[in-house]
């Protein structure tokens, strides 16, 4: 199966209508898409995702950015790609963390920017190594949301409160 990688198209990517373009470029890698969903990012999820950067001066801005607080679209597109060299391939396509330093034809090089506040709006996230990929994929996705069994699962009886569709017909 090869590597697994969590890919996020961040709120700036969505506002700039880059989704189609980025998906095309990802598909050209011939990696396989194993999961995808649009997510409204809670503070809890954002903090857990970026927990290794919690000591950094830019941490609070980073949390606000991924939550869409700086954009009109408060959501991200979260995806899992699998395949030989997936992490390397997607990170190469993404380009360097700092959009000013990223290769000019990479996604971050082409579409990223540093705001006047110093926030790196770099359009896309990609896990940086297999351990991070596993941690991130398990944070963003439940097993049933992924079409392959990419990590071992277990069956357990759990009772939890769950929001379901109301039986009342709503007006759209
Ligand atoms: P990457 O996203 O390339 O894996 P990272 O994991 O080191 O980079 O950092 C996560 C995000 O944090 C990154 O996409 C943008 C932001 N960031 C990193 N370094 C930064 C800096 N010096 N100033 C502002 N934002 C930064
Ligand atoms: Mg990283």
From TrEMBL:
The keyword Kinase applies. It holds the Pfam family NDK. ATP binds at residues 10, 58, 91, 97, 108, 122. One of its GO terms (molecular function) is nucleoside diphosphate kinase activity. InterPro entries: NDK-like_dom, NDK-like_dom_sf, Nucleoside_diP_kinase. Coiled coil: none annotated. Its cofactor is Mg(2+). It is an enzyme of class 2 (transferase). Belongs to the NDK family. This is nucleoside-diphosphate kinase. It comes from Candidatus Danuiimicrobium aquiferis.
